Amino acid sequence: MKLALVGVGQAGGKVVDALVRYDAETHGEFVASAIAVNTARADLLGLERVPTTRRVLIGQSRVKGHGVGADNELGADVMAEDVDEVLAVLDEVPSHRIDAFLVVAGLGGGTGSGGAPVLARALKRLYTEPVYGLGLLPGRDEGGIYTLNAARSFQTFVREVDNLIVFDNDAWRRSGESVTAGYAELNTELARRLGVLFSAGEVTTGQVAESVVDASEVINTLASGGVSTIGYAAAPVERAKGGLLSRFKTQMTEDDGESMNRVTSLIRRATLGRLTLPCEVQGVERALVVVSGPPAALSRRGIERGRKWLEEETGTMEIRGGDYPIDSGYVAAVVLLSGVTSVPRIKELQAVAVEAQRDFTERDVASPDRLADLLDTGDRLETLF
Ligand code: GDP
Which of 35, 231, 258, 262 can pair with 335 through a Cys bridge, CB separation 3.0 to 4.6 Å? Predict the structure, then answer.
């Protein structure tokens, strides 16, 4: 499917950059346009793949290109004031070439946390295509203000978009890595999952299997609304000689026991392994399974068995699925679980928001010093305010 990607804030821009890179390297063809929006000039300059004409600096009259720190209320205000500039850049791509919008932001900071929900609302008002969000939750070690921002932004963002796909940095953190190197790796992992999902259906070879996933299946799965999470698993397979097209002709009908078991097992691993947002699989509203790889390895029976298993595991009958033939040395399964209900991390964030709200009201916090006491993040706040 064709997406208009909009990264808001530093993390949003970097993840959009990673998606554009994945799309270019795999010829996925799912990026119709990519835009980065920020209040910090330096962050926009640091991007590599988003074209320079599609980097939009907002809030210049207020913060002069220096960013909003972790002040997500200012991030929201600035986006509200300058949203027309962003919409004008987006308008350069005709909307008939787009199946959906994806607004990407780190929810713990300022610009993305505050600005992404405001932009999503404006897009929904203006376009009939679905507007999805991709929200990145901060690590627990980032400090209270980040958690509080994320808790508040999450509640607004999920209301403003048709579906919010969530990636929890905390669940993906690895000890001993520098933050920057760690993020680059996380962004690549995330781009791979989203890339397989969104490039499914963009196959242009003509000879396509009948169970190929198209845009409408992704859209129908995400139409549950609420929050989504994505699982992924891959296994190496022998790369057959000859191009993708010749293998379409000669190997489409191969469906042996080995490839069937491999596909079924990948679907299980994708579902039960580390999800972008860890959660209970039981009780999700809808799911979509996409299995990509060389056509010979894409066992139709394996996908069918995987779907049945997922039906039992989730308790929903609304499981869509199909294959995505690509020339690759890997078979990969991506499982999109949409309308998740039982998510400990979201409950935790909501509790933080409620608690902080009560404390704010009781203590009538007015100064950054007292806010720092309250959230126990004095060091961080000193540098932010
Ligand atoms: P903003 O520019 O004010 O929107 O704030 P940032 O995007 O810099 O940071 C918001 C949050 O996003 C941080 O607290 C981190 O949790 C997260 N973050 C920052 N950079 C990245 C990144 O490259 N990848 C991921 N996955 N998360 C990031």
Answer: 231
Residues 169-184 pLDDT 10s: 999 887 666 666 689 9
Domain annotation covers residue 105 = yes
pLDDT recorded at residue 142: 87
For 230-253, b where at least 16 C-beta lie within 10 A, e where not — what string? bbbbbeebeebeeebeebbeebbe
In whole angstroms, what is the distance from residue 30 CA to residue 23 CA? Answer: 7
Q: Tens of pLDDT along 22-79?
A: 999 998 899 999 999 999 999 999 999 999 999 999 999 999 999 999 999 999 999 9
**73 in the same domain as 106:** yes
Range of the domain at 100: 3-199
Residue nearest to atom 27 of ligand 1 (CA): 11
At 375 the pLDDT is 42
Mutation to probe ligand 1, out of 107, 168, 169 (largest number of atoms < 8 A from CB): 169
Q: Are residues 146 and 61 in the same domain?
A: yes
Q: What is the pLDDT of residues 236-292, one digit of tens each?
A: 997 655 555 444 444 444 568 899 999 999 999 999 999 999 999 999 999 999 999
Beta carbon of 345 within 6 Å of any ligand 1 atom: no
Which pair of structure tokens corresponds to residue 40? Answer: 């910090």
Residue 89 CA to residue 85 CA, distance in Å, equals 7
Q: Are residues 311 and 239 in the same domain?
A: yes
Q: Whose CA is nearest to atom 9 of ligand 1?
A: 109
Residue 348: CB partners within 8 Å, gap ≥ 6?
A: none
Is the C-beta atom of 109 inside 6 A of ligand 1? yes
Q: Say if 208 falls within a structural domain.
A: no
User: Both tokens of residue 167?
Assistant: 């990636």
Task: Take atom 28 of ligand 1 and give the residue whose Cα is closest.
Answer: 11
